[in-house]
Amino acid sequence: VNDTLEARIGPRGVLPNIFGVGGDELLAKVKGVHIVACGTSYHAGLVARYWIEEHAGLPVNVEVASEYRYRDAVVPEDTLFVAISQSGETADTLAAMRESRRRGYLATLAICNVPESSVVREADLRLMTRAGPEIGVASTKAFTTQLAALALLCLKLAEQRGLDGARYAELCAQLAHLPRAIEDALKLEPQIVELAALFVPLEHALFLGRGAQFPVALEGSLKLKEISYIHAEAYPAGELKHGPLALVDEAMPVVAVAPSGPLLDKLKSNLQEVRARGGRLIVFADGNASMEAGEGNGITLRIDGGGDLIAPAVFTVPLQLLAYHVAVLRGTDVDQPRNLAKSVTV
Ligand code: F1P
Question: Where in the sequence is the active site (predicted)?
Fold first, then answer.
C-alpha cells in the first residue's frame, strides 16, 4: 500500500496525471462510472462504489466481468469503464473490456498489478497497484492495494467536482495514513490466532456488514471459502431477516464487520436478532464505537479503522488473517487451494 500511494498523493492532495497522459482531462469529463472485475477484484469495485458516489457524486455501477458481455448494457453518456484485475489476464475481465469498446464509453481505465498485462496494454488510462508478486492463489495484498488505487481515483474525481476543501484534505490525510493503519491492524494477529481455533471444527459461517463494510464482509467470506474450505456467506446485515436468519444457531458463527457512523445503530439491532437465536457473534468493531458482541459467547475485537474512507481496507486485514490462520490450523494448502488457479485465463 505504501508503494501504491508513493509519489501519488502529497500534502495538497492527489498529484496530477497519475493515470497517464491526458488522464486528468478525461476524468474531468466523466459523468458516471462502470466497474467490472472478478472475485476479490470485484469486491474492491463494490467498495469504490460507496466512495465515488459519496465524495464525487457520480453514479457508479459494479458488475462481475463474467456477466457483462452477455447483457445488452445501455451506456449513459460520458461513462468511464474501469477494469480491476490483479493479473490483468483474467479472461472474463479482458473480454468485458474488449466488449466495452463496442459500447461507446468515454474511456477505459485499468487498475492492475502487472504493467505488461493485456488489460493494461489495451486500456486508455492505467493505475498500477504496485503490489509486487502475489505468491498465493488467493488475492490478499492485491485487494488492499486495489482499494488504495481506487481511493486515489475517488479523490481525483471528487476534487475535480468541487468536494469541500477541508473534507478533501481530511480524506487525503486518511489515505496517506493507510499504511500505518494496516500495520496497526496486523498487531491483532495473536488474538486472531485464538479466534481461528474456534472455526476449525465448523462447516459454515456467516459474515455481515453494512455500507462500505458489506463488500469487506463478502471478501472475508470469500477468503475463508478459498483457503480453509469452510462454507461462508456474506450478507448486508439488514438482509438477515429476509432469509439467512433461519440458518442461525450455535453451530453457525456470525462475523460482523461494524461500520463507524450512522449505520452502526442499524447493525446493532441486526445483531440483536442473532443473539436472540443463540448465535455466536464475533464483532470487529471500530476502536471508538460503542459496540459489543454481548454477554455469553460473544467476542469483540477492536481495530482503529482510521476514518470512514480507509476503514474498509483496514478491516479487511483481520479477516484475511482469520482465513489464513483457520486454514493453517485445518492443514489446508494456503498458497495452492484445491480447484483454483491464480489467473483464470479460460
Ligand atoms: C480475479 C480472481 C482473484 C482470485 C483468484 C481467481 O483475478 O477472481 O480475485 O483470488 O486468483 O481470480 P484478477 O483478475 O484480479 O487477476
Answer: 342 (for fru-6p isomerization activity)
87 lines ligand 1 (CB under 6 A): yes
Backbone phi, then psi, for 311, in 5-degree steps? -55, -40
pLDDT mean over 118-140:
92
Q: How far is ligand 1, taken at its centre, from the CA of residue 124, in Å?
A: 22
Q: Please state which CATH class domain 2-184 belongs to.
A: alpha beta
| Entry pTM | 0.95
Report the residue count for the chain. 346
Ligand 1 centre to CA of 269 (Å) is 35
Active site residue 141: no
**pLDDT tens column, 269-280:** 888 888 888 888
All CATH 3.40.50.10490 domain ranges of the chain, comma separated, are: 2-184, 188-330
Q: Exposed, middle or buried by CB within 10 Å (0-12, 13-18, 19+), for 72?
A: exposed
Interface ipTM: 0.96
Q: Is 139 in the pocket of ligand 1 (CB under 6 A)?
A: yes
